[in-house]
């Protein structure tokens, strides 16, 4: 039996962040309010994530520090700063690269943000997929896959170069057709909130929406440590592209723990922040496209993923 507080957290957490806080961000951006309000909303989302992970943890052990919390906070600070800097740079980019002004300014602000999310979702998903297939990209993406516990801050636990490539793929097409700064600001907040939800250590419920929205139930499969097995569920916001690319995977009977996360090919991946920044540039940080490995929990193998050597 779950308590009333746990029930509220289980069924209310996702709507509160996905609709409530994103909606607040859209309202702030549409009104042209100071951008620090978006940072306040993001801080509220992070605080809510930490609270809910303690009320309804998927795995209570994942709430305990493993000498990684400080590192993860640095990753978050650096990568969120990069996202905000990219938004601030849009007017400059627009001046350098004149856009054809194809942006649908006549649409409602909410529709403009939703359209930006769908376009960004496609670009980021494609780069994410490529990062599991191309050795050079995997060098940097491997930082994200080195995690052995699944919690909110993991979403921005990325090498800044890979974060930049992903965001460029998602946002550059939008900038080229005249993306307004206010829409970009709402999109940046949506990305941060989505990453919190996608990597959350909260045992929340979203019903059949788990087959469409790229949230934690599906994303855990992406972090399975065996080459090939984790090449699934690449979407950031939705799983639409995964269904179309046949990379969607879900098994309701599956339970996850730390022994299934990380990289089987590189269990001793560096854990310090500076070491993770430098490792992709070293000889040992290289990789090859390894053969698919068997998942001992299913006894099967699937497509290939870059294996760090």
TrEMBL record:
One Pfam family here: FA_hydroxylase
Organism: Mycolicibacterium rutilum
Subcellular locations according to the entry: Membrane
UniProt-annotated stretches for the region Disordered: 290-309
GO annotation, cellular component aspect: membrane
One term of GO molecular function: iron ion binding
This protein's name: Sterol desaturase/sphingolipid hydroxylase, fatty acid hydroxylase superfamily
Residue ranges of the TM segments: 12-30, 36-56, 77-97, 109-130, 167-197
All residue ranges annotated as the Fatty acid hydroxylase domain in the record: 114-247
Organism placement in taxonomy: Bacteria, Bacillati, Actinomycetota, Actinomycetes, Mycobacteriales
Biased composition (Polar residues): 300-309
InterPro entries: Fatty_acid_hydroxylase, Sterol_Desaturase_Related
Main location class: membrane
Keywords: Membrane, Transmembrane, Transmembrane helix
GO biological process, alphabetically ordered: lipid biosynthetic process
């Amino acid at each position: 039996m779950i308590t009333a507080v746990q029930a509220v957290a289980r069924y209310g957490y996702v709507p509160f962040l996905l609709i409530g806080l994103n909606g607040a961000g859209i309202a702030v951006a549409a009104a042209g309010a100071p951008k620090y309000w978006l940072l306040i909303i993001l801080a509220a989302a992070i605080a809510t994530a930490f609270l809910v992970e303690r009320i309804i943890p998927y795995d209570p052990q994942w709430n305990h520090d493993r000498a990684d919390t400080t590192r993860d906070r640095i990753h978050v600070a650096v990568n969120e700063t990069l996202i905000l800097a990219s938004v601030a740079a849009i007017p400059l980019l627009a001046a350098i690269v004149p856009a054809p002004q194809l942006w649908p300014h006549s649409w409602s602000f909410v529709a403009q943000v939703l359209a930006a999310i769908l376009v960004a979702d496609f670009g980021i998903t494609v780069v994410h997929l490529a990062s599991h297939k191309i050795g050079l990209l995997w060098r940097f993406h491997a930082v994200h896959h080195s995690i052995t516990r699944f919690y909110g801050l993991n979403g921005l636990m990325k090498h800044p170069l890979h974060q930049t490539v992903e965001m460029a793929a998602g946002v550059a097409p939008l900038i080229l057709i005249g993306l307004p700064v206010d829409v970009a600001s709402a999109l940046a907040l949506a990305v941060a909130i989505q990453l919190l939800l996608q990597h959350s250590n909260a045992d929340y419920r979203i019903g059949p929406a788990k087959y469409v929205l790229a949230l934690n139930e599906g994303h855990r499969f992406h972090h399975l440590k065996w080459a090939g097995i984790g090449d699934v569920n690449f979407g950031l916001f939705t799983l639409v592209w995964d269904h179309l690319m046949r990379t969607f995977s879900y098994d309701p009977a599956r339970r996850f723990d730390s022994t299934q996360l990380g990289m089987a090919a590189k269990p001793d991946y560096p854990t310090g922040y500076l070491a993770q920044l430098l490792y992709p540039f070293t000889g040992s940080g290289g990789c090859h496209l390894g053969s698919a490995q068997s998942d001992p929990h299913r006894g099967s193998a699937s497509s290939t993923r870059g294996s760090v050597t």
